[in-house]
Amino acid sequence: MSRSMLFTLAAVAVLAGCAPLGLYYREGVAVSRMNNDLTDCQVSALQKVPVVKETRFTPLRMVPVRRCDASGANCIVTYELEGGDPYTVDVNKRLRKRVEAQCMTRKGYEWVELPPCPSTVANAAPKSVTTVLPRLTPESCSIQRGGGRWQIVTPG
């Protein structure tokens, strides 16, 4: 693995620990039930708003290229065309996420984002994962526990 790839992976890992935890929340609900409800809503949203792939292309650009002889004295500039690479986009993705959110709202959930806990709180908290969604306060924060698992902590 190249150094730049390792650096990128390390940066992503560090930033992931600094990102807020976003989740559908309903006090007292088991995390496993919330995950099941979310899966049901995702399947329903996919049935109502299916994936529609659209091929798009990156912009075309003219790039100057300087070519010189061995002495470096005689140079010419030519232009080469770059871009035009194809990529696909699911044009229904945003609408599907809205349908998913409506479904979760109908089930009594609201979307919340919890900031990461300060290191003093994270270090003092018992190492566990949240299995039932607790009561939240303005001081509530989250600790990433790896593997998509997390712990919600309310200091005080």
From TrEMBL:
It comes from the Bacteria. This is Lipoprotein.
